[in-house]
Amino acid sequence: MRQGVFIIFLITTICGANSSMAQSLNEIDNKINHAIQAGSIEQLSPYLNTTIELCIPDKEGSFSKTQSKVIIQSFFKKYPPNSYSIKNQGTSSDGSNFSIGEYLSGNTIFRTYFVTKKSNDKILLFQLHFEKK
Question: Stretch 58-87: mean pLDDT, rounded?
Fold first, then answer.
């Protein structure tokens, strides 16, 4: 009888942890989407990993968090957001989350893509792409 109770407890604990992890990933993704919509590096920077893969007009590669802040801030300044909409979100097989959207600045439309995943008990942004359509 005790083993049965322990197994049920263990399953409940594991499912709860997975559910809260998914919820946390979704919460962070929503905050990142909000930061992009606002064109705010201040709102985005807490979620940047120590190294980020960026694909932004005229800048592509892996950059440090400090370099990424400058690059993204420059992008937001050059292309301030008129609107931003999320087209698709999901979870990859490796447990990371992704979000695909459309960012409009003036007459220029960008397809956006970012990836978040857990690292050292924090959910961080590992990839961020702004590609002209």
Answer: 97
Domain that holds residue 82: 2-132
Q: What is the pTM of this model?
A: 0.80
Mean per-residue pLDDT for 89-100?
Answer: 91
Give me the sign of the Cα torsion angle 28, 34, 39, 40: negative
Q: What's the number of domains the chain is made of?
A: 1
Q: Give the pairing of strands 122-132 and 48-56.
A: parallel
d(CA 71, CA 94): 28
Banded model confidence at residue 23, pLDDT cuts 50, 70, 90: very low
Tokens coding 30: 């929503």
CB atoms within 10 A of CB 112: 20
CATH of the domain at 96: 3.10.450.50
